[in-house]
Structures are given as C-alpha cells and as structure tokens.
Amino acid sequence: MSRIAPLQPPYPPEIQDHFDRVMRGAPPLVLFRTIAGNARAWEKFRAGSLLDRGPLTLREREIVIDRTCARTGCEYEWGVHVAIFAAAAGLTDEQVRATVLEKADAPCWSAAEQALIAAVDALHDRVTLSEAEFRALSAHYDDAKILEVLLLCGFYRTVSYLANGLALPLEETAARFPTA
C-alpha cells in the first residue's frame, strides 16, 4: 500500500477529465491517483509534465525514460513504461533488459542511442554533461532534442522520487525489472 492513500473512484469531474486525457480510457495509475489527492501537487505535476510527444521519437523518449527510471531504481515507472510503450517504440527484449542491466555502450544500441544513454547516465551520476558527452549527444541530436532529454531526465527523476518515496505498489500489468 502506498504511504499516502490514492484517490478512490468516483473521482471529482475535473480530475476524472484529466485522468481520461492522460490514460485514454484505461484506469488511472496509482501514481496519478496519489498525486491527484493533493490539488497543489497535482497541478504542479501536470504543469511540469512532459506527457506530450515532444521533439524526440517515441523510441528515443522511451530509452531516456526507461534508463532514467532504471538508474533511480524506480521499478514502478520503468515497469509502466515498458508495459505500455516498449513494443510501440520498437525496443527488443534485449534492449529492455539493457536499460536496467547493461552499460551505455552495449552492442544492442546504435551509436546515437549509446550517446543518449551515456547522457542519461552522466546526468544521473554527476548531474551534468562533460564537453565530450555533450559533443557526442550533439552529433546525433539537435538543440530541441537535447533540451527534451534534459527535461525528461529531470522530470522522470522526480517521478521516481514520488513512486519510490511513497512506496507505490507496482501496477498489476507493469513489467518487472529483469534479474539477468
């Protein structure tokens, strides 16, 4: 059970509308129901949200999110994203495992994807990019995509803090971290 109780249905109409837009008919995630129980937190979460498509491809976006969540030990959000988006993003089982278990230079990734993962790792480890890491990222991605990478890493680190700090129970349909 979550450390803060999630909202239970029926939800207030405004919150139900938000859930419907984000979840597209699926039941709302425990994360959303928990945050939505506090109007200020829900507003801040939605205002800072990066739930739109943005300039990255779905594949690039999911690599960044999955790696960020894996590095923060957030099985909750990693599992939700893998279950919902991995197949549509064209991530193989090997690549999904690699987001958790492999280094950035794992051979299952293209050079551009290796630069992306190395940037996520650098941001996680040092909260910055070296000149070499930024150049490697810039060799494959334009400024808009690089900004999106930085924003996604920060946002999903926050999501990881929320899910881990609240001890959210894993969603029933979510993937689980691989062990090997």
From TrEMBL:
Give the protein's recorded name.
Answer: Carboxymuconolactone decarboxylase family protein
Q: Matching Gene3D superfamilies, A to Z?
A: AhpD-like
InterPro entries xrefs: AhpD-like, CMD-like
Q: Name one Pfam family in it.
A: CMD
Name the domain of life.
Bacteria
Q: Which organism is it from?
A: Bradyrhizobium sediminis
Q: Where is the Carboxymuconolactone decarboxylase-like domain?
A: 39-120
Give an example GO molecular function: peroxiredoxin activity
- UniProt cross-references to SUPFAM superfamilies, sorted A to Z: AhpD-like (SSF69118)
